[in-house]
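Structure, all two chains, one model.
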Amino acid sequence: MAPKALDYESLNENVKKVQYAVRGELYLRASELQKEGKKIIFTNVGNPHALGQKPLTFPRQVVALCQAPFLLDDPNVGLLFPADAIARAKHYLSMTSGGLGAYSDSRGIPGIRKEVAEFIGRRDEYPSDPELIFLTDGASKGVMQILNTIIRGEGDGVLVPVPQYPLYSAAISLFGGSLVPYYLEETANWGLDVNDLRHAVFQARSKGITVRAMVIINPGNPTGQCLSEANLREILHFCYQENLVLLGDEVYQQNIYQDERPFISARKVLMDMGPPISKEIQLVSFHTVSKGYWGECGQRGGYFEMTNIPPQTVDEIYKVASISLSPNVPAQIFMALMVNPPKPGDISYEQYIRESKGILESLRRRARIMTDGFNSCRNVVCNFTEGAMYSFPQIRLPPKAIDAAKKAGKVPDVFYCLKLLEATGISTVPGSGFGQKEGVFHLRTTILPAEEDMPAIMASFKKFNDEFMDEYDDHRGYSRM
Amino acid sequence: MAPPVSRDTLNPKVLQCEYAVRGEIVTIAQRLQDELKAKPGSQPFDEILYCNIGNPQSLSQQPITFFREVLALCDHPAILDKSETQGLFSADAIQRAWQILDQIPGRATGAYSHSQGIKGLRDAIAAGIEARDGFPANPNDIFLTDGASPAVHMMMQLLISSEKDGILCPIPQYPLYSASIALHGGSLVPYYLDEATGWGLEISELKKQLEDAKSKGITVRALVVINPGNPTGQVLAEDNQRAIVEFCKQEGLVLLADEVYQENVYVPQKKFHSFKKISRSMGYGEEDICLVSFQSVSKGYYGECGKRGGYMEVTGFSPEVREQIYKVASVNLCSNISGQILASLVMSPPKVGDESYESYSAEKNRILSSLARRAKTLEDAFNSLEGVTCNKAEGAMYLFPRIRLPQKAIKAAEAAKKAPDAFYCQRLLNATGVVVVPGSGFGQVPGTWHFRCTILPQEDKIPAIVSRLTEFHKSFMAEFHD
């Protein structure tokens, strides 16, 4: 029999190179343990509803009505659904070309893209063009589409922050490009120094790489830092000087837990800088319904907005989008509702505000609880979670622990995280999954477990950690390389 | 300084790929539609009829009530407890929603699921496959995806490392395959379906094309078979399917079985048999053949294109390879939950005895019998046109008539810098408002011309379409007769 086409050896090498730790070794081990009956707390992925966060009521009412439009004709529909949800369902259904079951325009329903543009206009105080907004099945698909359009081969480099959300490294691997890392400075609150950027680009170029794009994640994942306006200006100037397209992952823009640095979009800063720069820098901005206080991960709804991208390129991106026919229509409606929520005076407004505030304020409290909890542990140092959904404490592993990890054939932070999992059921993602400076170890956890469970979880972690450090510390202090 | 992202600096594979289903002619149609809206009466027709794309609900096909009831309840589970809900939803829809929600951790339909899809739903799909085929299916072989298309892309990504990797594709084919192969930098190895024998698939043709590719240094990795066919509509005979399975086994090819039209069969003498069933009935198991079967919620009698639901069932490969597929699926986390639920409903619909069975059955049969009638009416209409022959649509949703264009027309097309069939289709659009896709978008034997037209406009619109088409064709032939 001839060798088979799907034998491991004959697979696409780029696929084999891909790593995505968020659902990697730790997650698989945690799932195994769960099957064996152990109670697992999954903090490996930003998946709020899986940890008890409730969906907002209004969007679920609207989408349910859109799913079953025959309800709208039933005289008793008002017993179950408020009038504004009914009106919205009719509004969005009238925008579709046959309800939720028809392929829409490959870029998304025009009326919804218009509402997204209006949202951006209100947020940034500059008009946005619906023709340059494409809805996608989640922001991840949009990121992959854009990177696939840019990367021609391994000679093309993309600047990516380290630590980063590993969608970027995975996508660059899949498309055969080169990841050009720029390190965020942990001691400066995960700050970004433009000199580091310059250095990274210089090094890449000296290896013959053409650096094409720069990714920023703002607020950061896994690091949570919120970029200041000054920082964004620097970054934009840098992209202008080095001729890079800026890819702004802004999916956590609703998740802000401090007041010194509110969210400001890359586009607003760019527009504020005025011509010629505001008309020249190429920018693609990404957003989603999965994060914020909506947390509707399972819907797979997102969009990207293009700024200063030439029409021919937009056409090519449209062409590739059309091969997948259209993004899923229910998620498009979720997106519309997110950018155009109930307003003061609407029947559902009070409930909407109460639910949203409740979630955001709790997230803010949990960000603090977790940061403080980690900082109270031996050999653990944790920057405050300014935004997003994660805590990324540094675990200062003693040399004995690192040796034990080597002996067990595991990367040190994986070793630590596996032991944490076995002891406490807390499933995290080792820092090596996101990238970190050589010899410095972290883990990523989410701030999503229910507030009432937090004290117990942090106590459980502290107990494990302090016992671990007892076992492996030689009490001469740590050495941080 | 040249901007970083401009047409000359894009990924050349992106530049190379084409997808005619939503290509140039559709753009022109949309413009005409806008003009018509702005100035009613400005065109020789009242409305644009999109017959370019298999999008049933955009042409007024109604969704299956039971499915929508269950989906609505799963979208808004808060109402399941309320007494008013009993009055608005059927009892078995409520029951099914509870059953589905109980399989979802925390009943959280807004959470990312397992990257292959919710386990309980995969169990239901596996049971549905077994009921259909009479052979067991493993839920761990199922990967739920946002429609069948992303699953196809995943397989192409795995199989293709360079242009030396070839994928055998039928000509004519649904251009997702050519586009995906181009995007992933592989080589499309064409095998021609035989129009004279109802778009028959000859093993001798497969063998010939395989040898040809090998001699050019191409390693052929897989064979794509679309059954029922798109755009061609033929339903494969069982012995044909057995020969295909044997061929793949002997040559070590992955069989990529696009079976999204499995519920669309319109002729009593043919039945759909899945390639999984055929392989297993030949005694071939996991050790013998690598088979990937694609299914979707977009077609059939449910036509739920906008939901983006589908799956692939992957059998016959090693755990290491399965790991890689899982890994790629995990980067996107999971497919949309509502689409996953719908896929499980499609594979396990109401049964005899269920409260909704009668109405579900009536809806299903109404749609399928209407599709069969429309397929026949349009087939006859095309065959009545001068110089046009049209094979029967045994299944799927399309007709693919062959038009014999006079030399004058071909010259006029050349002058207009258009492929002759694109020229014809654009004239057709301008005269009648009907949007069809030129055959060159699907591939055809060189020197032959076709177009693909869906059978989806509602039955009451069909007479008008037929008369407008007939009138246009007559005047076109009169204008360009040699």
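Chain B touches chain A through 100 residues (CB under 8 Å).
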